[in-house]
Amino acid sequence: MATVKLWTDEEVSANPRVKAIFDDIRATRKTDFVNNFWRALANQPELLQRTWASIKEVMIEPGALDPLTKELIYIAVSTTNSCSYCIHSHTAAARSKGLSDQQHAEFLAVIGMAAETNALANALQIPVDPEFVVD
Amino acid sequence: MATVKLWTDEEVSANPRVKAIFDDIRATRKTDFVNNFWRALANQPELLQRTWASIKEVMIEPGALDPLTKELIYIAVSTTNSCSYCIHSHTAAARSKGLSDQQHAEFLAVIGMAAETNALANALQIPVDPEFVVD
Amino acid sequence: MATVKLWTDEEVSANPRVKAIFDDIRATRKTDFVNNFWRALANQPELLQRTWASIKEVMIEPGALDPLTKELIYIAVSTTNSCSYCIHSHTAAARSKGLSDQQHAEFLAVIGMAAETNALANALQIPVDPEFVVD
Amino acid sequence: MATVKLWTDEEVSANPRVKAIFDDIRATRKTDFVNNFWRALANQPELLQRTWASIKEVMIEPGALDPLTKELIYIAVSTTNSCSYCIHSHTAAARSKGLSDQQHAEFLAVIGMAAETNALANALQIPVDPEFVVD
Amino acid sequence: MATVKLWTDEEVSANPRVKAIFDDIRATRKTDFVNNFWRALANQPELLQRTWASIKEVMIEPGALDPLTKELIYIAVSTTNSCSYCIHSHTAAARSKGLSDQQHAEFLAVIGMAAETNALANALQIPVDPEFVVD
Amino acid sequence: MATVKLWTDEEVSANPRVKAIFDDIRATRKTDFVNNFWRALANQPELLQRTWASIKEVMIEPGALDPLTKELIYIAVSTTNSCSYCIHSHTAAARSKGLSDQQHAEFLAVIGMAAETNALANALQIPVDPEFVVD
To answer: In chain E, which residues have their Cβ closer than 8 Å to the Cβ of F131?
Structure first.
């Protein structure tokens, strides 16, 4: 159902710029599997390169937030944006990073409560308490 | 700018049902400060009661996700829903639970990347890889 | 804070096309008050004309849904879209059409539940039951 | 395409806590059919219990808004959130509660107008008229 | 998966009001192909008529923005709203109006950057610079 | 109302990394004015650097889409995401790049129509025509 062609491994191999990025995806993630997101972006090599560089820096390199927390934040945004592809791929990623059933249940409870109270606060147009503002 | 009246402490004190909930909010959070969200919901005592009971269970009682992680997930949803009140109140809550500047910076990077790749995946209507589906 | 000029009554009076639409707004609504939405659209007379014609047909002319129900549906969409202006103006309109406090409380409960279960259903990517599909 | 397992009746029967909730769903709705939403939530018994209790209180128990109006408000939120599952299930629910073709047509017209004017009001950043604010 | 029936050409031919609109769609677009959007709206002849009249005026009649630019703006909104149908149909329309691969790549980069910076600006609740406000 | 501190020119000057980026923003845009978005991001120098680099590449460097078209696409996304800051700043940017009143009026008409038909297509869950799918 894509609006663009998904590149096969053969097509990737025939394009040195795209092949170098796919090689780095495989080496960084230590798996031969490259998911459709990258096969779709292969049509736009510059966007592919910039997006992969950012994802690698933001989601994979070690930092102050652990990898599982980052995945949960990612799924929270993707769920609110109704991005079916992103919800599927990052829920799988969260599982591979150790998401337990209990954690998933609590995650779902939090995004549900957030969505509900967002609706209430927006409908009531509640003014921000001065205590919450940074001068 | 609210679409409903915000209840003062005097008005709260005059309504036993609302007062009992405000007392529990103050006792649970160990502070006398009650923010505008609850002062707006006071107009709907049933909704106030159910919402506070859920927030207490989901956001405050100990579980498999730590309190700061829950706040970040909450802000991620609220940002995507453009809920100004919720972003302000839960960013303040995250700070009070120890959010460091470095963690905030990484959080912002993650929600930015998620929003960007959501737009790309949606615009390209990328089909979900079979590897990501739970049978 | 508008991104365009808001037309004063003097400016409206100087433009026959815009004036005719403002006259119809006032006559149809039986009030001299014309809210900022129309004063902003006055910059684009064609859009003003088409939007007012549609609003009049959809929201004001009698039909199978009563006027208050239409306002609640309108606010539900506006809240989910975080349109502050629309939430304010249509909550006021709903009140002028008889919205009671109890109805407002139930409305808030429904939009809250919908937002919460939308988040859950999206996060779980639940497949549609065949019973819900129209052949 | 779910990100979690959907529970079969056999699996439900083997879990007393989940079974009790499914029994109540069937008894309350007076039908043996239990849709996939609840079969997905069965993985998180606490969330299942809290969500069903809220849905029952908000959507099923009699109140100041009639059941069909509540369904229309629900679909309005679900459409704006692009929740495919929720749109399907609640459009079916609205039909079972008597939604006529003419009412559906008017409902569609209202959500269309709301979405359009939300876009206009947001793009123009129209300031809220003082007349619409509750002090 | 529709929530309404999609009208076949036979059903269209049997309804003079709907047939007249379908005839105009075919004549205006110079093709016999009528896509499912109009076959679904055929259930609501008034909405069909008003929507087609607006689409024709806004998207087809010549103006100050060229047709391809209008399609890109349309897809940008549809992507952000996660409207799968609209993304597919208007990406096809943009291609038929000359969208090049390089333009598509740049379009994707722009909507990605916009979504990312929207998330950042919302999460940071940045106040609008006075320089950007129209008095 | 920001959730972070906005950096003054004095604070920027005291931080060489941030100062270098602000210098580049001023040189690239040929103006001394630096808007609040960058003053907020200054708290996160890495994010500031990566975001400015991307904005410069995507929005400023010449390509296959002209600068005004990119701004309109940007505003379309920002409006749909209800990002008040982004709508203000990019409407001002579009004006500085030559947006005429007639173009603005047509832009508003297009995003209004897109939002309206998104709501209709989502509510009707219209299946994608095979003609629109890329194999």
So the answer is: 33, 35, 92
